[in-house]
Amino acid sequence: MKRAVAFLFARKSTTDMAERDFLMAASMDLRWFDYSAAQRFLDTAASLGLVVREGERIRVTFDPTGVSVPLDFTPPPDLITAVPRGEDLFEEILQRIVATGGLDAKAAIARINEKQERQNVEIVVAALLVLADLGEEARSLAPRVLAALRGG
What we know:
Blueprint: H1 2-11, E1 16-18, H2 19-29, H3 35-47, E2 51-54, E3 57-60, H4 79-82, H5 84-101, H6 105-119, H7 123-133, H8 142-149
Antiparallel strand pairs: 1-3, 2-3
Helix pairs in contact: 2-3, 5-7, 6-7
């Protein structure tokens, strides 16, 4: 997911774009998805904290040029369906971070993205690490995180 988002922003040499431009690039320009699937792609990227909606624009929450993406990149066909398994878990961890960490959602997502880039781990793992860094009990979530990573 992160590679696909990085590719879209890096190819435009920007960190923000109109939502419509993002959707058109993912559907019409690159032919990765049909338009409704491109919308689900954007929604999933937003729920994972990879992009933030700001009115009619979206902004990437990480440095897209810092992600290694081949020039001929095409996301796997199951990209949209593969991600939601961990999405609910990510949202649950994010809510716990916000509730216990004294951070708003935007700051929590920024911290999670920073941890993800520094540790080079999946977003749900980074969220769990941030929760643990805040001194909160995270061990009980580890089996669910592992299951999500394994696709179950």
